[in-house]
Amino acid sequence: MDRRRGFTLIELLVVIAIIVLLTVILLPVFSGARAMARRTACISNLRQIGLALNLYRQDYEELPPYLSRIAAGYVKESRIFLCPSDPNAGMHAGNERMEGTLYLPSGVSYDYVPRWIVAQELGWWEAPPKFGRGRWDDLTPVVGCQWHWARTFNAHWNRNQPNARGWQLILTMSGSVRKVRVEEPVEAFTPEKYR
After folding, report:
1. Domain for residue 3, yes or no?
2. Cα–Cα distance between 27 and 57 in angstroms, integer?
3. Total structural domains in the chain?
4. Which of 15, 80, 95, 164 supports an S-S bond with 45, CB 3.0-4.6 Å?
5. CA 67 – CA 46 distance, rounded (Å)
6. Residue closest to 100 by CA, chosen among 113, 124, 81
7. Which residues form the domain of 129?
8. Dihedral sign of CA atoms 84, 161, 174, 104 in order
């Protein structure tokens, strides 16, 4: 007699349980890897923006009036203005600090710190049109990315929210990208706290 042996119901359920368990274990690892890849792409974008800002500054001896102004002659691809973690891909009504679609139709995801009224009040940058050298020269924050901890942009936000937690990426005038805790009061900020 030819008896074929197949899987029993219990064996099949054990295999399914193992697959589900592996999925539960590996899913956070994959999502963490995707988040790291987005952050790495964002850091690359910020560094390219830093190079373009420094070229603009050498040519005009001042910073541009708004961030996307460098798109015309200093940036080949306007996608560098979009953070991969920005859920709206730069399509924000925006304001002067986080301009969104104000000047560049493809959008901008990054904050332009010299246009931030609080940064001007604290003496990080002079009021426009000329922003000056910056309070800490090459270590002065010039561009920030909030999309690695925030999911929405509030155009009226002007200080760190008390319940905010996480890291913000900051581009300095020297072209380096640093991490800053978002729950840190803005008034207490100094370059020594960069990581």
Report:
1. no
2. 45
3. 1
4. 80
5. 11
6. 81
7. 9-193
8. positive
Residue of 2 and 114 predicted with greater confidence? 114
Quickly list DSSP for 35-67: HHHHHHHHHHHHHHHHHHHHHHHHHHSS--SSG
- Write down the residue that tokens 């009040």 correspond to: 121
Q: What span, in angstroms and rounded, lies between the C-alpha atoms of 30 and 24?
A: 11
What whole-number distance in Å separates Cα of residue 139 and Cα of residue 120? 16
The answer as to whether 120 is a domain residue is yes
pTM comes to 0.81
Q: Which of 122, 100, 113 minimizes the C-alpha distance to 170?
A: 113
Total residues belonging to the chain = 195
Angle at 101 between CA 56 and CA 103, to 5 degrees: 40
The pLDDT confidence band at residue 148, using thresholds 50, 70 and 90, is: confident
H helix intervals, the chain: 9-60, 117-121
Is residue 2 one of the residues assigned to a domain?
A: no
In this structure, which amino acid lies at residue 111? D
Residue 160: the pLDDT is 61
Q: What is the per-residue pLDDT for 36?
A: 84
Sign of the Cα pseudo-torsion (178, 191, 56, 92, in order): positive
Q: Is residue 52 part of a domain?
A: yes
Residues 65-115: pLDDT tens digits? 999 999 988 998 999 999 999 989 989 888 778 899 999 999 999 999 999
